[in-house]
User: Fold these one by one.
Assistant:
Number 1:
Amino acid sequence: MTYVRNAWYVAEWSVNVPVGKPFGTTILGEPIVIFRKPDGGLAAMANRCVHRGAPLSLGRCEADGLRCMYHGMLYNAAGCVTEIPGQDAVPPNAKVKTYPVVEKDSWVWVWMGDTVADAALVPKAIGLDDPNWLLGHGHMDYDAEAQLINDNLLDFSHLSYVHASSFQVGDSFAQEQPVVTPLDRGIRYERWTTNAAPPLGANPTLRFDNYITYDFLIPGILLMWSGGFPLGTAAKFNHGRPDFDLACNGVNFTNQAVTPLQPGKARYLFSWGPHCKHGDAILRDNMIKLAYVAFNEDKTMIEAQQKVLHRSPDFQIMPSRHDRTVLLYTRLVEKLAKQEVA
Amino acid sequence: MTYVRNAWYVAEWSVNVPVGKPFGTTILGEPIVIFRKPDGGLAAMANRCVHRGAPLSLGRCEADGLRCMYHGMLYNAAGCVTEIPGQDAVPPNAKVKTYPVVEKDSWVWVWMGDTVADAALVPKAIGLDDPNWLLGHGHMDYDAEAQLINDNLLDFSHLSYVHASSFQVGDSFAQEQPVVTPLDRGIRYERWTTNAAPPLGANPTLRFDNYITYDFLIPGILLMWSGGFPLGTAAKFNHGRPDFDLACNGVNFTNQAVTPLQPGKARYLFSWGPHCKHGDAILRDNMIKLAYVAFNEDKTMIEAQQKVLHRSPDFQIMPSRHDRTVLLYTRLVEKLAKQEVA
Amino acid sequence: MTYVRNAWYVAEWSVNVPVGKPFGTTILGEPIVIFRKPDGGLAAMANRCVHRGAPLSLGRCEADGLRCMYHGMLYNAAGCVTEIPGQDAVPPNAKVKTYPVVEKDSWVWVWMGDTVADAALVPKAIGLDDPNWLLGHGHMDYDAEAQLINDNLLDFSHLSYVHASSFQVGDSFAQEQPVVTPLDRGIRYERWTTNAAPPLGANPTLRFDNYITYDFLIPGILLMWSGGFPLGTAAKFNHGRPDFDLACNGVNFTNQAVTPLQPGKARYLFSWGPHCKHGDAILRDNMIKLAYVAFNEDKTMIEAQQKVLHRSPDFQIMPSRHDRTVLLYTRLVEKLAKQEVA
């Protein structure tokens, strides 16, 4: 599978990387340990002690860095061994690869590229502490290639089938095409459903013009807004992007991140919740419960798909019209990946 | 391992393929979905959607066929896609391989050959609804090559050892040879045990001439009759096939099917029970309980054997005299398989 | 990984190989069954019936040997088939490889070499029935290469980190080097810790000169004595080997054996307990409980290390000064293994 390396990958929710407890993971097959310095700042490095290969994620956070708890090699945040118990000198090559790491919008992001990390490339997500939103969050690990999850998120026609019962999306949803626009680092999806039942919570006999839009960005970040508008709004905005201040029902947002851990394994991280003017903590908690139901439907389907593909190495996909979006994104990934190698 | 392809393989008990619920399996390593049309008739096809490889066994049975529940491709019973949500035309190559499938004697049989399916080759089993028999049924999945289970069923000398406690078969059983006759599509096993304890249920101090006979047929179907006869019956029939109407004790029958799912995996399906004149539902249920005990003894042995063979790729078997039957059947399989390739 | 073949490997604790129950294992990847003859003596042979490869460890111990419980082949202690049910003659090549096996010091030892077994090479361990010691015992199976466990036992500086909480060994322990002496078939480790807290049990405000010494012998046998001595003893013996009769606190002993089962799998067997003059059964039982806690700490670390190494085939260790002992032993293994091939 092809992935862009010059990108910020979400390693985990910030809250799951507490002070004093190293966090071990893999991204693109590389073992990585992330830990907090005493000042709370993050460091990320190869999760493999230079001495005998023990994982540093079983190590101990100390004032001066991270100590491997097999034979006591101490690493500073620059990945250099600064102490080897039982000997005076430390060889100059006693160091591990480090990774640029930032904490932003409640996520820990790791730069996997070989070039200088570009802080401007961190996608503009919304953190759990944003006062405008009431966001819950969760995560799942997949026995599937990250690209299969990306494909899933790039073709929302699956809502009519995979989520027929959980999200109660009818077949008609899949029969219409969204408006899709290429972005520099992804694609933008927009879609009006006019004269429709309310998206969330409200009296189901009422009717709205519902709008959903998401950006799906390298290396696998989904940022989605949706809401119900007064009938006629779609026409008023010529079926284009509305002013969200006009929304009168169920405005909600979700951040999602898909991270390739290693071949055939991926992590899926998500938030979801209402705008503060369109819901409360109870609605948020119910939305997260519903998200777990629905995202487990995706997991069941995608992991089953992965098994079929694993047994069918020669299988070629037969794209449908909905795959336009998938192909747009896939070609962007391939283009950027090719530039990296050149 | 060598298997005959021009043959009907048992996919499952009919009752486990209900209306409205697609059944996914593999046979000879090929992923297959079997489902019932609204009229109850069966259809079988490749369990892999042409679109993105999702398993159709997670699909939805509809009036017009089977719908993939990933992105909604609808398949008719001929394996052709008839609807792609969001687009008008369906490409003509949007179809999957289909398999001839019949329902007979309570089993779902799938033809795995590339030639025209030959209905006459379905082995003549006995269904669970046959009024002459009271048959219970069961199934087990093995982590072992189907051929190892076939080998087991072709050499009943294992009863003296594997089933020493469950079936209480003494060492002497293995010391005698059965009469074995080649058939066009298998072998026939016959054996008298004279002046012996009753096979099932009766006063254990009584003595009978017990007779067992089974046909073991391509691709792995065992059909076995056994019963106790008055002393002298073996001699009267010159140790050949008796008239079963003369049986006076414990006449019983078992259908068994061994299906190669994929390399190293097999399914074992079995019925067992008394003739209606020689038992009742209570005896039938006790026989199935006993079958599970005994067949788990086989499973333990064969799965352990499989592990040894897996670690010993160069191992050559050293056939015993009892292996005559195994070799007869194995040569038939090799002959038929060779003819298929020619 | 390189292992010496002309050596006695510990298969299991004697008590786990009872009369009447064959014991199946693998050593260096070879499947082996060990069983007791009616006189209690041991026999060891390939755990794979010549007939169809069934494991003999599922067999039945009889007066005349071990009977395969698949189709009844009977083996004598020389590995020869002596009976094949249903046929008169036994082919002369119906035999399996046998292994020299001895029972000594509560362990079952198997010679894996192709040369004549050398009884003098059985390491001089201490049995569970030795009246001078109160030894408990245990065992663990590792998902790790045996060599990684050997490496662990050859570098005790890990005590300061892996066992910081269980054995309460401070960082200072790792900062000093032991005295290491090469032996013909291993290495000897010796170390004084002067003016230190008592090793076991005693008033923690008291101070002792603690001494530990172990021999680590081919193919992976650790024999360790430790104890506390009156202050000044280290100086008196010039920091060399003391007279253990002078010990005044916590004299204890542990036998340990590391056996490579197959690539990536190992068995770890251990005893531990006080000298009869320095403890009782309650102390012994508490020591075994503590051993399980501590040895599980090793297991967690080493299995995690194994996973990292498995994913990092090109990883090269960077030896520290403490690795002197590991390298000494590793070179001995390589030298002996090379001699075997020559």
Number 2:
Amino acid sequence: VLLSDPEAVPESGIGRLASPPDPLLFALLYREQFHRDAKEVLPWLLRVDAAHVLMLAERGILLPEVAASLLRLNRDLSARVRHGEVVLPAPASHRGLYFVYERYFIDHLGGDVGGAAHVARSRNDINAAITRLRLRQELLALLDDGGELLRVALALAGDHSATVMSGFSHFQPAQPATFGHYLGAVTCELARSLALLSASWAVVNRSPMGAGAGLGTSFAIDPARTAALLGFEGAAGNSLDAVASRDYAVHVISPLALLGTTLTRLALDLQMWSSRAYQFLGWPDPLVSTSSMMPQKRNAFVLENIRGQAAVLTGALTSTLAGLKNTPYSNTVEVSSEATSHLWPAVAAAGTAIRLTTLMLRHILVDGERMRTFLDQEETTMTAVADHLVACHGLSFRVAHEVVGRLLRENPPPVSWSPGRVKAGLEAILASEAGHAVALDESELGQALDPVACACAARHGGGPAPEGVRDQLARLEAERCDLAERTASRRRRVEEAAAGLAQAVEALLKI
Amino acid sequence: VLLSDPEAVPESGIGRLASPPDPLLFALLYREQFHRDAKEVLPWLLRVDAAHVLMLAERGILLPEVAASLLRLNRDLSARVRHGEVVLPAPASHRGLYFVYERYFIDHLGGDVGGAAHVARSRNDINAAITRLRLRQELLALLDDGGELLRVALALAGDHSATVMSGFSHFQPAQPATFGHYLGAVTCELARSLALLSASWAVVNRSPMGAGAGLGTSFAIDPARTAALLGFEGAAGNSLDAVASRDYAVHVISPLALLGTTLTRLALDLQMWSSRAYQFLGWPDPLVSTSSMMPQKRNAFVLENIRGQAAVLTGALTSTLAGLKNTPYSNTVEVSSEATSHLWPAVAAAGTAIRLTTLMLRHILVDGERMRTFLDQEETTMTAVADHLVACHGLSFRVAHEVVGRLLRENPPPVSWSPGRVKAGLEAILASEAGHAVALDESELGQALDPVACACAARHGGGPAPEGVRDQLARLEAERCDLAERTASRRRRVEEAAAGLAQAVEALLKI
Amino acid sequence: VLLSDPEAVPESGIGRLASPPDPLLFALLYREQFHRDAKEVLPWLLRVDAAHVLMLAERGILLPEVAASLLRLNRDLSARVRHGEVVLPAPASHRGLYFVYERYFIDHLGGDVGGAAHVARSRNDINAAITRLRLRQELLALLDDGGELLRVALALAGDHSATVMSGFSHFQPAQPATFGHYLGAVTCELARSLALLSASWAVVNRSPMGAGAGLGTSFAIDPARTAALLGFEGAAGNSLDAVASRDYAVHVISPLALLGTTLTRLALDLQMWSSRAYQFLGWPDPLVSTSSMMPQKRNAFVLENIRGQAAVLTGALTSTLAGLKNTPYSNTVEVSSEATSHLWPAVAAAGTAIRLTTLMLRHILVDGERMRTFLDQEETTMTAVADHLVACHGLSFRVAHEVVGRLLRENPPPVSWSPGRVKAGLEAILASEAGHAVALDESELGQALDPVACACAARHGGGPAPEGVRDQLARLEAERCDLAERTASRRRRVEEAAAGLAQAVEALLKI
Amino acid sequence: VLLSDPEAVPESGIGRLASPPDPLLFALLYREQFHRDAKEVLPWLLRVDAAHVLMLAERGILLPEVAASLLRLNRDLSARVRHGEVVLPAPASHRGLYFVYERYFIDHLGGDVGGAAHVARSRNDINAAITRLRLRQELLALLDDGGELLRVALALAGDHSATVMSGFSHFQPAQPATFGHYLGAVTCELARSLALLSASWAVVNRSPMGAGAGLGTSFAIDPARTAALLGFEGAAGNSLDAVASRDYAVHVISPLALLGTTLTRLALDLQMWSSRAYQFLGWPDPLVSTSSMMPQKRNAFVLENIRGQAAVLTGALTSTLAGLKNTPYSNTVEVSSEATSHLWPAVAAAGTAIRLTTLMLRHILVDGERMRTFLDQEETTMTAVADHLVACHGLSFRVAHEVVGRLLRENPPPVSWSPGRVKAGLEAILASEAGHAVALDESELGQALDPVACACAARHGGGPAPEGVRDQLARLEAERCDLAERTASRRRRVEEAAAGLAQAVEALLKI
């Protein structure tokens, strides 16, 4: 009568407890969560259950016929779940998906068989395993999306390796640059964050199965086998660590928060440059919005959505760290459910930010002519003029800088800087102030004053000269390919493990 | 007269500007900062300057005699700084350390020589380089401290691989465990954070020199050479990335925040277990405090200081990410000075937390007897009793769990659970409720009820059995050695580069 | 043909744009959001629309018959929405709820009437208004829940004003205390946070309607009237502030984060005291959980869920501040949608934490006897002994403290401290070390050593003596009543405004 | 011999402990802290000590002559501290300032007198009191600085109530506005944050003295008297709350973080508008910087420093909340020292941000002509054209908006929009598409197209019309005056209390 009769024992009559949860507790913690879990957790629970039962059977801990019964029901449920069916009806009261799931097996197979799978395991190691499996899936998607972002950014940068524009610092024109150089710079940081994200795989993809409630088991299980069946790269070494740790949440969210932050910087620059004051950039109608009130509007509002996601990520990182703080190093809901819950909004926000950025880069309209017009109005080549005095006339850079600065001070903008005017001005200052009677060459000065020539000359120190940019992009492209291949090979291994598990189940069922 | 006469040009008369900073600005941003920079930045500025000048001379961009003059003064200043001398007096007004530094060279060598070093460079790449050099130094110290923490934790865990105690979950006794297993679990997470910290080295240790203001240079410099002279592992590929990015701050602070958070969990457990309610642990007088009011007090307050540091780190990570958000991807004080400033309190807090934890672990007093006494009063072996029913009597785990739960429900604590009592109780329930008329073996039940036997049996799934713990610790020790060797070899390379730079300077001065 | 024919103009053919949004954009930003908005935003949009149209009609900006047509459709939609009907079918593509909503009016009433409501308004002020209305509703609920938490906490504290227990500091027994005093202390901080939350009402409950896109309007509208119809306490003074500011999100989340943090402290204490090492507290079966593996378990896991919510709140606060950082002070999606989006998870988490805590306090089981037993084993009255030497024998406190400390040092625990033993020990130390030959009174010492007498004597400085606790609770009860009345009166005003709006609509429709 | 002989008792030989702190502990926690405390804490400790001793004497708990000796030494030390003297030499080892301080009194007055002050108090309530006193001081300074920021911002806004510029949304020109309106909008939010900061005063300015270690005292002290002597507005009601709570840190840092975030928005707008693409704004040389490499540069870098401070504040808020999380509600270093430590960098960062912003607003150079030139090139009056069709020709706004949108779609920029061109275009569209054959008035259209006329017409809904702006500013000015008066009166009360304490000490010493 203990478990065979579903009516005889209340849902929560397990262990020392004899009552269902308090109704308010049920309403606040279990009722809605059940439906989310039935969608997001159940498919993984079935997978973990199958791997565990298989391993138990292989180790002789479960009788073959018991394992077969369990796996047959598991296989059927899995198939129905894959077809979108709701297989577990929610009872009027319960204590969470797992107990409803196990009860389903008991109801269908009886307590002696349906209750047999839970040997040498606990909800603790099962939950820990499921979180890792879900996260692993999300990681692969993020790495794919991130790789595509890199691809589109590098292609755009390549198209604009020779699109000359003003470089900026402190929001002010600095020196001549290229748009491809700018995009390459941002891509460097994105690539570093994605490499860091990719490195989290090794921390995430370890199996906690076998840890039980955190203190292992006396049954001679084979955790490495369970791990392999689930596509994990190995089993956790210490059972308490396996259930108590969620550090991998930080290993994952931290690169995402960093990547999101980089995207805010890119999105700010792009939105500024697309504003009417610059008009360097634009997007076609399907990527801008107008105003319900102002008919002239073309707002690149998507860039604002992108920036908003970074704030989600920074908050998720804070929540995770704050959530872990001052918790016992053992199983606790505070860690296993609560502190871990920030992962899912974080991966969603990161995915959105990455895909929106890719979209905006893919369809960006670049107005190279306006970039040039703007550049021509600014004094971005004055460093080149100073450099010329150093390179060709032997001045020290500081003296040259001071001489050019003096020229600028004496001629407040707007000034039209012809080579002749610069020559006359500099020669006068050099003679009177710096004690250098120098005859400057007007055509050389003309070169120094030409923004395009300047940009092309800046080919040292990782500068924006087109040829240098192309080299930089080639190196980034190689990194991108590495990342893409690593991701693809991981995906392959995960899929092979899933197929292997299904085959092993079939094999056992055939016996 | 331009630069040769220090009186002729106001300190800030560079470029287009003709005035010193506003006095309030000076008071708020420059005055105090100068003294901090003179201590923490100047030694690195001298080093960067020397490497840059050497490279310029080698590339023929500076005349040998100009380079020699600059390097001679640099060498002398460096020596005086190493002896703790204050070498740069603070002018009444200035715009920061760099301009005072350069003015010092101009005052001593004249503008034509003293102003010559600043070719193909900017404060932007210099500042970026100095931050990385400082951080690299801190990283080495943190990795050493972290390695020592691992060493002490593993040694303590090894001493207590067979010290049986109650394992816990949800603050309640769970199953028998060992103290060495607990310490091993925490060390697993610490080791993962330190490995992540160690991986940041490759991101941190890249040279931005040559990037200038962010847009490279037309001078045919050799950034790889400058990088090598400074012990960097290579030069940045893109000059804008070199000055605009500070992502490495997140690469460093994030593992520190995670590590700090793990330490809060350890410190909470240790403080709870050292409280009068447990008395598992203690520390000698020099590591506890009393109260100015309550003479009986022995407070393990250091654990509270440790936990406080984690909050510093979480905040520093938040500050860094928030500081980077929505900034242009180019040089800006908001990034290069402000967002980067959180690094130093963070590394200090992490160092304190690590060293205090090491200290507390080194001197911990473990009372194995009280651990055993506590364990004997709790019902932590009831899972083992259920496991026994499964392993020896063929019950499904859920039925066995339910049977034992029923026994406990019928006998509310305090109960003295003799094997005989358990045998009688279980047999009755099995017969009446579960339909299993089973004769249990009292001596086997006695084994299941014995916490020490239980702990020793838990040798699967990474459990706390002493032999398993020793294996786990051996694997962690191997990781620790790897980390220590990697750190030592990095330190060696850094020191060799410093020596190489000094030798190259001497060689040039000898010519 | 412009708007009267729904087929003639694509959904997004407004203003200068002629295309629907990019399909990926639609998928990422609009598709799912529409259904959420249809549930959470539409009811408020109808309300705002009605108030605006009424005001326009009253000011003669809309013709009465146009206003009547609009309001009639609005009233019908509102009624259907109240009955849970889905009234706005989602088009295959669209640019968000508002445009679909307006299109619905145009389809039903023609462009000349259906498109008439949008004069002197924009989505910007409408969205701003709706966020405030939603938040106001949440605020009332939170203040009610918070008031109930105070009520239950104060009732429990009142029940235990004389339940003597050990006070603690640094996790160690300190001096005798009462459980009611502890609960009163925590309630003080909760009451302060709720008062701060309550103060946010004045910032939240202001109407942005009339601000348009942020730059007001030339139509002679009456923003105060719209505000009154919506139950706002006034209209925003500056139109740009009205649409650009979301500071009220911080005004609301910040007290919630603080309150959540206080609840973590309470929940940690309660969980520690309910652990087997203390057993001061417990909860009935419906509020604890067992383990799927360990049948003896009774985990007060709800306290862990409570603590998890605080981390949500800290993260939401961080996200909001990071989200607002470096945004233009004008309308931007980054602020109006993104940075504001953290409000809803925050209010949900706070509501959950508050209600779960109330539940746990309501059903708590307090074991006063175990509290006393614990107290009797600890040396918490040693300060009282020192105080006795000061009060009755004229020693300075530091000398008295030192004398008692010496006694304790010479008699390491466990010691059974009878008055006679203390008398003999102290007299010896006083004579030999402190030069005070004093005869102590054994019965007075007995009083000082008695924890209950100590707790009752601690009636100064806000101490735990039962009578003092009752006074403290009475003051808190007065604060609680104030808060409850303020909340009730606000709710009344909001409901009256809703009724007034409905009546005004009816009145206009009757004409 | 106990305390009278400084050599007889080791520094830390208090209570049960007999050893000085571990040397590493001393190095990490005490050594440097002592010097900071001697500067920042000691003056307040002397003040608290004086008030406590006075109260004890008044209540007859201390003999008058004992109190007089203590107060005389206190008065002398206070005077020397006020003169900048270092009065407490740091011993080779110690356990923090308080014990060194008390030892100083014992050394000078003997143990019977020098050790007498510590009755009915503990370091816990003393530390809590000192933190509140320090913070109160900082609060007054911040409220003064904040008031001055409001004053300067309002003055500037007043100067520019009629300076017409483009309003913006989504970084794009929106409708005509005024610079004074923009400044007024930002000032609204600043004023709300300062009001919230001001409200924290009531939470901060409560006295914890009398709470002892958190559990009150049996001595019949008068906490209200101590509170009054220290200028507090009352004594804490519950002694445990008095020492365990630091919620006021969040009450203070939260408005500062919000205020800092608002300043980032202002600083971003100002820096964008001062960039060469806009040139609306500028600053004189003393407030901009140039580049060490680019002689043409004028960087408004101070705005970047301002924005950096907001990140400090967001991090400090996170640190404080994370620091408080999961701590016992009782005295703990984790709260009283660690979580509270973030206050001081936060108030410093806020002060810097506020004062730098004030400085930048005070010296801002506004180029109204460039604001107009920019406005003339943009289509910011198109909403006014649509409004005209509504107001004068009876179109519904949506139809009018669509008609104008159509006109814009058919005439992509750049277009020179003369009234005649608009008239012809609109009439054609109205006739063919909207079925409205309307004759438009060219001179009325000219009004609608004129940005200045538009800005002046926008006088409803809090819009930017100069007269409306002046009204808005007048209301803000009234709020500012309230704040300034409230701050001044608080400062007065604090100063009066300090004077009253000094007089009471003198009076007692005269007896």
